[in-house]
TrEMBL record:
GO terms for biological process: menaquinone biosynthetic process. It comes from Aureispira anguillae. Keywords: Lyase, Menaquinone biosynthesis. Gene3D superfamilies: Periplasmic binding protein-like II (3.40.190.10). This is Chorismate dehydratase. The keyword Lyase applies. InterPro entries: Menaquinone_biosynth, MqnA. Catalyzes the dehydration of chorismate into 3-[(1-carboxyvinyl)oxy]benzoate, a step in the biosynthesis of menaquinone (MK, vitamin K2).
Length: 256
């Protein structure tokens, strides 16, 4: 039997439509899938432990020969709901800011917005597990993914980074994309992208499947209004701008 394609995908709720598509296709027979926190998806692809990953886009410049696969991503056209800075005081007064260890893109996005949008100078702290407990007084935290579910209204101030990026650039944003570090066979890629497309088309059903596990959080709305899965030309432009900022010396081909 041929070696399966090794894939690392994000273990959060936003990725379930993609997984649904993969399991509905015949591909589940030829892929070896692991679900990981985003920073680990990036590490595995950079280390060559997987052939393909749904990785934080901030890690793309660290790959030697990145290939962005498909016209799908984890993106947003504005507010995203699950990438936020939580704070007990207005952000202008924050002195310490914890950066989620599960993230790569939103950490870079936070640094970008702190400098270019808010123009403030808090001390950044690379967080370890359990950092959410440290929010209070003048200490804030960036939290991403499923751990943000249920935090709405818990802290006096919430800053949605998709929304702030949109305000600042008038562009959508891409958090994660399907990326390989070498050209993969077209026969596989065609099936893979068809599976992703199927999953996105059926995300209404996926939302129904998962809704009962996320009480108080509207999964359908999350999949249709907040997360935007299409890697459009405008999103590619936004991605280019963002990567040029975080890795000015490294040119990455993001257009098709
Ligand atoms: C919108 C999200 O995007 C995530 C944010 C990432 C990051 O900051 O590195 C990586 C993967 C995405 O799943 C989220 O998980 O809430």
């Amino acid at each position: 039997m041929k070696q399966p394609f090794k894939i690392s995908a994000v273990s959060y709720l936003n990725t379930k439509p993609f997984l649904y598509g993969l399991f509905q296709s015949e591909l589940d027979q030829v892929v070896d899938l692991s679900l990981d926190i985003p920073s680990e998806c990036a590490r595995k692809l950079i280390a060559g432990e997987v052939d393909l990953g749904l990785i934080p886009v901030a890690a793309i410049p660290q790959l030697e020969t990145p290939h962005i696969i498909s016209d799908f991503c984890i993106g947003t056209e504005g507010a995203v709901k699950t990438v936020c800075i939580y704070s007990a005081c207005p952000i202008e007064e924050v002195t310490h800011l914890y950066l989620d260890y599960q993230s790569k893109t939103s950490v870079a996005l936070t640094r970008y917005l702190i400098t270019n949008y808010w123009k403030i100078n808090p001390q950044f702290i690379n967080a370890l597990a359990g950092f959410e407990q440290k929010i209070g007084d003048k200490t804030a935290a960036l939290i991403i993914g499923d751990r943000t579910i249920g935090l709405e209204g818990k802290y006096a101030y919430t800053y949605d980074l998709g929304e702030i990026w949109k305000k600042h650039t008038n562009l959508p944003f891409v958090f994660a994309a399907w990326v390989s570090n070498r050209q993969l066979p077209t026969s596989f890629l065609d099936k893979f992208t068809a599976a992703l497309e199927l999953g996105i088309q059926k995300r209404h059903q996926v939302a129904q499947l998962f809704q009962s596990s996320y009480l108080g959080f509207d999964v359908h709305q999350y999949y249709h209004r907040y997360i935007d899965y299409e890697l459009t030309t405008e999103k590619r432009q936004a991605l280019k701008l963002f990567l040029e900022y975080i890795a000015p010396k490294r040119e990455v081909l993001v257009s098709k």
